[in-house]
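help with this.
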Amino acid sequence: MSAGGLFAEDSWFYLQARNSRYFETPSFAGGKAFFSFDPYVNLIFGTIYTIETTEDTTTTFPGHGGWHRPPQGSSTSYSQRFGLIEMDFGLPVAFSYDFFTFEVEPGYVLPFNSGTDTASAEGFIILLSAFFRIF
């Protein structure tokens, strides 16, 4: 579990729960090489803002409430609650040999907001990384 905050014009608090299980294969190639795996599930909780209109349009989005109070007689209501913002899971696979590591991390991101105005990653992602140890 980790807690954090974003410092911006409209700062907000979030809570992250991550569950992973790291394991690696026995060493080979003279004890210099091995494969490692770190499958994970990551849940991010935070404040979810909801905007409802009389046209039965409901929009929910995470983060900040960058709105102002509705004018008198407005048919729009605003609310907020703490809840699940996003879930992602993946299976990073790394190959390490002596002083370098090459990692492939396929994953899937599933946001829990219904807002069409908010930009967030959704679907399959893949991350490729290379690390070199210099000391």
